[in-house]
Amino acid sequence: MGITENSLRMTLSENSVMQVLWNAKEPMTSRQIVEAVQAAGQATWEPRSVFVLLNKLMKKKLVHVVGYANVGGSIARRFEPTMTKAEYLAFVVMDELSEEELPEFLESFSKKENPIAS
Length: 118
Known about the structure:
By secondary structure, this protein is an alpha+beta fold. It has 5 helices and 3 strands; from the N terminus they run αβααββαα.
């Protein structure tokens, strides 16, 4: 299988934006996203790059515009994720594993112990 060109795979910068949106209680403007990413110490990009990141996330259908807000006399788009973090991770796993590997994954996932931590 593997990740395709139109897949949901994210860069680290895109992931930092998605983490903020997944943790948000309501849709956010680009300015709010930048402030939250910076507050979390995860900003590895210039603040104006948020527009490029959001456009890429919209192209991947991970984020969409849900309205507008009046911010300092101008209109700003408000963004929210199109799926939860759990749904995203499930899609990534399903994209990476073949149908034959899924039962083994589910069995491993349901085990209480973590063999890596031992």
